[in-house]
Write a structure and sequence with these properties.
The protein has about 325 residues and is α+β, with helices and mostly antiparallel strands. The protein has 3 domains: about 10-90, 2-Layer Sandwich (Uridine Diphospho-n-acetylenolpyruvylglucosamine Reductase, domain 2), CATH 3.30.43.10; about 95-215, Uridine Diphospho-n-acetylenolpyruvylglucosamine Reductase, domain 3 (2-Layer Sandwich); about 225-300, Uridine Diphospho-n-acetylenolpyruvylglucosamine Reductase, domain 1. The protein is built from 7 helices and 19 strands. The strands form 6 sheets. Strands 6-7-13-11-12 form a 5-stranded antiparallel beta sheet. Strand 17 (about 255) and strand 18 form a beta hairpin.
Length: about 325
């Protein structure tokens, strides 16, 4: 088993006072769905938007900031994440429904958002129940599944930039494309407004149960994983390309390409982040060699490796 690295002490003394809390060398592996990765040099949980605003405005300019949600579609590399990792928690998870509109804090889980919409008889957001993650991250990447995507229900969002300045974004400002937005990288989405339509609670609940059943039947939902690994290339399905390249069940140490859905990488127990990322790169290489198509990662990879990563295929 890899020994968890530690960052040198000292950064915490350079950071501004906050109402939330700082933790130095904070373990992240148990917080990620893959159950791998090194620590955050500093983990910061802001109390509320005012606390986060003040931190961003006052922090030293040379300190990198990384924002994480529920860490479902995330791979933290074994060397950990330098600088400050911000995790939006209770102060960013409130949800309110008003007629056909729902507004949620950026840290609210997609499932919690879908449940709130169901309870209010608001239809059109059921697909969110099948997407692990938080609504802030989902708005950034235009997450989608089961016939829906965020861009189809998005109304507006509020974000803080790296200096603590507030921005209000409408759909045009988000520049949505397939699993992508053009929102600036330093924006932290603190709340998101979505639109649904009046619906029958029982029908909404039935659709959510159907989505759960489909997800459990087609995805390795009971095994540590990071969700869909690669974006579908135009005109293709990533899992079909991976399957045709002979990668179903491919392993590297304790990391494996799922036999159930081969666009999912799984940790069978004891894998490192390097095992998982290296396996993903091997899949990319084999797909590129057999088809000439370069798969792009959908899983977000953060931090520094403890060992070198194989050069990406097709680059």
């Amino acid at each position: 088993m890899m020994t968890a690295p530690k960052f040198p002490q000292g950064l915490i003394d350079r950071l501004p006072p906050v109402k939330g809390d700082y933790t130095a060398n904070a373990p992240l592996a148990k917080s990620t769905w893959f159950r791998v990765g090194g620590p955050a040099e500093i983990l910061y949980r802001p109390k509320d938007i005012d606390d986060l605003t003040a931190f961003l405005a006052a922090k030293p300019g040379d300190v990198p900031v990384t924002v994480i949600g529920v860490a479902s579609n995330l791979l933290v590399r074994d060397g950990g994440v330098p600088g400050v990792v911000i995790r939006l928690a209770d102060g960013f998870s409130d949800i309110a429904v008003d007629g056909d509109y729902l507004r949620a804090g950026g840290g609210a889980s997609n499932l919690k958002v879908a449940n709130a919409a169901r309870d209010a008889g608001l239809a059109g957001l059921e697909f969110l129940s099948g997407i692990p993650g938080s609504i802030g991250g989902s708005a950034r990447m235009n997450a989608g599944a089961f016939g829906g995507e965020v861009s189809g229900v998005f109304v507006s969002a509020t974000a803080l930039d790296g200096h603590g300045d507030l921005h209000h974004a409408d759909p045009a400002a988000m520049g949505y494309g397939y699993r992508h937005s053009t929102a600036p990288e330093d924006w932290i989405f603190v709340d998101v407004a979505l639109r649904g339509e009046a619906g029958d609670r029982a029908a909404i609940a039935a659709r959510m149960n159907e989505i759960k059943s489909m997800r459990d039947a087609s995805q390795p939902s009971k095994t540590p994983t990071g969700g869909s690994t690669f974006i579908n290339p135009p005109g293709h399905k990533a899992w079909e390309l991976i399957d045709k390249a002979g990668c179903r069940g491919l392993t590297r140490a304790a990391a494996r390409v799922s036999e159930k859905h081969c666009n999912f990488l799984i940790n069978t127990g004891g894998a490192t982040a390097a095992d998982i990322e290296g396996l993903g790169e091997e899949v990319r290489r084999r797909v590129f060699d057999s088809t000439g198509i370069s798969l792009d990662w959908e899983i977000r990879r953060i931090g520094v490796p403890a060992t070198p990563i194989v050069k990406e295929a097709g680059k």
